[in-house]
Amino acid sequence: MIRLREAVRALRAGGVVAYPTEAVWGLGCDPLNNGAVDRLLALKKRDWRKGLILIAADFAQLEPYVQLPSRSAQKRAFATWPGPVTWVFPASDHCPMWISGDRDSVAIRVTAHPVAAALCAAYGGALVSTSANRSGRAPACSVSAVRLQFPRQLDALVPGALGDLAGPTPIRQVITGYLLRAPARR
User: Fold this and answer.
1) Beta bridge partners of 27
2) What is the number of other CB atoms lying within 10 angstroms of the CB of residue 55?
3) Bridge partners, residue 17, by sequence
4) Range 64-81 average pLDDT
5) Which among 51, 63, 145 is positioned nearest to 104, based on CA atoms?
6) Sign of CA dihedral 2, 55, 92, 34
7) Was domain 2-181 assigned CATH 3.40.50.2300?
């Protein structure tokens, strides 16, 4: 897929790309590239202290960013992956503060969305995944909405259909299982 290769080239060059996810269009970049993350945050007008979600095609791509909790806590998260559930894990010492924000944890998801997972697999690592919108505005639910909010600021846009979720993925705390953000209802 040509657009996927273009997106991977853009990511490797420090670019910001848009792609479909389980519920809304996402913006992503290389989580280890501070300049790329700063650019993404500036596009969104989002405070870095809030932290960002990382997605991946498999847990091995996320493992460097997290400390592994107990086996029972891991089992709880792994039972939902790949899938549309985001889990907050303790951050490892290698997780950049521009990803974890002002927290000692990081939100991660092994995505089952075919385009998002293919992008992570082709890139060969985890990606920042945040909704494609400026802070305070509704997340983009179509290519035209992405282009309206970011007319010339993105380096690539990977086409594809959104998943079946009505809104952003639920977020749970891996150690306690506590629900931090409820799933959207249709």
Assistant:
1) 18, 130
2) 30
3) 28, 156
4) 97
5) 51
6) positive
7) no
CA distances, 141 to each of 24, 36, 173 (Å) = 5, 23, 27
Distance CA 122, CA 31 (A): 15
Q: Which two tokens stand for residue 185?
A: 């209802």
Residue from 144, 149, 118 nearest 133 by CA:
149
The ranges assigned to domains in the chain are 2-181
Task: State how far the Cα of 25 lies from the Cα of 162, in Å rounded to an integer.
Answer: 7
- The Cα 98–Cα 80 span in angstroms is 26
pTM over 0.90: yes
pLDDT in tens, 155-175: 999 999 999 988 888 999 999
Beta-carbon contacts of residue 80 (< 8 Å; ≥ 6 apart): 87
pLDDT digits (tens, 9 = 90+) for 106-157: 999 999 999 999 999 999 999 999 999 999 999 999 999 999 999 999 999 9
The string of DSSP codes covering 90-113 is EBPTTS-HHHHTTSSEEEEEE---
Give 126's Cβ-side CA count (13 Å radius).
26
Range 40-44, long-range pairs (CB < 8 A, 24+ positions) = 40/16, 40/128, 40/130, 41/98, 43/16, 43/134, 43/150, 43/153, 44/130, 44/133, 44/134, 44/135
